[in-house]
Every structure is written in C-alpha cells, then in structure tokens.
Amino acid sequence: MHSICYISLAQHQLAGNVAAYIRQHCCTGKEQLLLKNLCRHFGVCETSLKQVFKQRYGTAIHAYIIRERMKAACNLLQAKRAVKEVAWATGYEELSNFSRDFKNHMGLSPSQYQEQWRQQLQGQPLSICYG
C-alpha cells in the first residue's frame, strides 16, 4: 500500500523556486549551493526544505544539484571546453571530485565523454546520453 503525501501550494512553489535557483546558479564558478545557504536565502529551516523538495521532486536537494551540474558539464564538454575549466565552471574546486561525480552519473570520465561526443559528430553513434 502506497501512502500519498500532499504539499501545500506554498510548499510546491517554494520547492520550484529552489529548483530554479539551483539551475540558475549551478554554473557560477565557485558558487556554493549548500543546504544552509539555500535555507538562508529562502528563509526556511533545513528539515522543512529537505522534506518539501523531496516530496515535489522525488530526490534529495544535493542529488538534484549534482544532476544539474552534470547536465551543464555535458553541454560544456560538448562545446570542447577543457575538463578542468568545466569542473570549475560547474562549481567544483577539485578536479578529482568533478571527475568522480561525472563518472558516477555518466559511466564515463569527462575526457571519454568528450571523445564519444566528437565521434558522434563524425557520424558515429554516441553510446551514452543523459536526460
């Protein structure tokens, strides 16, 4: 038996505003999208924000942030930007952390992804995609 949890319109809007803020700020260099900073920005406590966000999006805020950063990273890598530059541009201070997260989400290292993208542009099929 599944339980259904409803959130109010205000909570729904809050979660949407937080998601939009994350999308807008996931590529602002060293912008730290920390939970405490999001809570301060939106004037809510951590527990409430985590619950409301998960209820609306079905994922934790941190996982959502990483997913948005990986989407942005794919776009930057496709534009032939250097891996180190992409790491910094997507909010990572350490290249190793970026490479680890990228490989966990994409199944390839950033340089392998770039190579596969280059091959696709040459008419060879890309073996992975991110949606």
Shape: elongated
What is the C-alpha radius of gyration, as a whole number of Å? 17 Å
List SSEs in N-to-C order: HHHHHHH
Helix fraction, binned, reads 55-70%
What report would you give on this structure?
The chain is elongated, with a radius of gyration of 17 Å. The protein has 131 residues and is mostly helical. The model has no long low-confidence stretch (mean pLDDT 87). It has one domain: Homeodomain-like (Arc Repressor Mutant, subunit A), CATH 1.10.10.
What is the topological layout?
Elements: H1 9-25, H2 35-42, H3 46-57, H4 61-78, H5 83-89, H6 95-106, H7 110-121
Helix pairs in contact: 1-3, 4-6
Brief overview:
The chain has 131 residues and is mostly helical.
Could you name the key traits of this structure?
single chain, mainly alpha, Arc Repressor Mutant, subunit A, 0% strand, elongated
